[in-house]
Amino acid sequence: MKSYGSANIKIALLITGIVIIIATLIYTQVIVSEILDREREIANLYAKSIEFIANDENLSGEYNFVFNTVINSNTINFPIVVTDAKSGNHNFLKNLDIDTTLPPKEQNILVAEMIKDMDEVNKPIRVSYQDSLVLSYVHYGQSKLVTRLKILPIIEFIVGGLFIFLGYFGFNYIKRTEQSNIWVGLSKETAHQLGTPLSSLLGWNELIKTNAYSPAKVLNLSNEMSSDLDRLTKIANRFSKIGSKPDLKMENLYDVIHKVSNYFEKRIPRISGGSFGEESDKRKIDLIINGSKSAAALVNKDLFEWVLENLTKNALDAIENSVGCITYDIQDRGGYISIDVKDTGKGLDMRHKKDIFRPGFSTKVRGWGLGLSLSKRIIETYHKGKLYVKESEPGKGTTFRIRLNKDHLKK
Question: Alpha helix (H) ranges present in 266-364?
Fold first, then answer.
């Protein structure tokens, strides 16, 4: 599924780039066509003006109106040349790039070459006297604006191609980086998940050695070791469920949370770096469960406990003092059930509110940024709920909210 999704994104990116290029090319061609039509109309207007003057005996030879009003204004911004029909010499020219310092003969040669080029682009317009005698020809080319617009599609094609290439390259780079972060994070998360029960087992083993002659204590420690061994089995089951559709069952949320908090309460000294049996190293962190004791939800117990454990570990890491509190608040709000996990830690920089769920992002010095990403995936993908930061304030703590929709529970 993931590979198909990535392929679809790449195809969509390619199609989007092609559509943008084609749409821009079409739009540019429409503009060029409109400008060319306008220039053609102006050239025809100029030719008709000359023809009108030539055919009116009262105005014959009086070109002031045409030259001063039409030609010498900014109406014509394209090259134009009027040549005599008999001699072929030019009577008038405008907007031609000619070096005026050249000898007249050389200038005439250049004009003749330009006329030839213009005639290949636009058919010259005849100026006749009484529809029988051709007096002159009006030759005109294209304005610099049209020339630039015709080059524009090439630039657009290059820019569009560059956009597609960079987009495709950037997407692949981000995808590879994210996958690398996920794999590295997953390996570290596995080590971290295994680390807590293994550390506990080592501690229980040491305590058994020191209490070998006390059967009651050994039995109690043995029970705790069994709990950690069960946890190792549960961790293996959790990772086996990633990527497959888990089975959801109706569970009492208070009981699930109580089981998680009870496990952590007995291991907070070890999690914080202390040693079992050393009171001086213990942290006084209370884990409190408030709210509804009867709220039930359709969840996968193993994966849901994993989410709660990740949130609890984050809360423990956030509480830098030796005294603190983590509160779980369960509320049945009619349309949905909410579980707030609140700590009294250092709080969260709200600039990182969205980034904290991104794989590979972590504000911890030794963090790998996968726990919250996995938790969000478990809640939103497998349970169709929501996991987000409800509120956070520096120095006062952070509250994460899990939201499970009841509409989903009924299905």
Answer: 268-271, 301-318
The widest CA-to-CA distance across the chain, in whole angstroms, is 137
Closest CA to 292 of 325, 329, 335, 321: 329
**Residues, the chain:** 411
Tokens at residue 244, please? 């497959």
What b/e sequence results for 154-192 when a residue is b if at least 16 CB atoms lie within 10 Å of its CB, and e otherwise? eebeeebeeebeeeeeeeeeeeeeeeebbeebbebbeeb
CB 255 within 8 A of CB 328: no
- C-alpha–C-alpha distance, residues 225 and 104, integer Å: 108
pLDDT in tens, 320-372: 887 889 999 999 988 899 999 999 988 887 777 777 887 666 666 454 457 78
Query: Which of 151, 171, 169 has the alpha carbon at shortest distance from 161?
Result: 169
- 173 CA to centre of own chain: 13
Identify which of 289, 272, 362, 281 has the alpha carbon closest to the alpha carbon of residue 325: 289
Query: Strand runs (DSSP E) across 141-252, as ranges?
Result: 249-252
d(CA 54, CA 62): 9
pTM: 0.49
Can you read off the two tokens belonging to residue 399?
């509250």
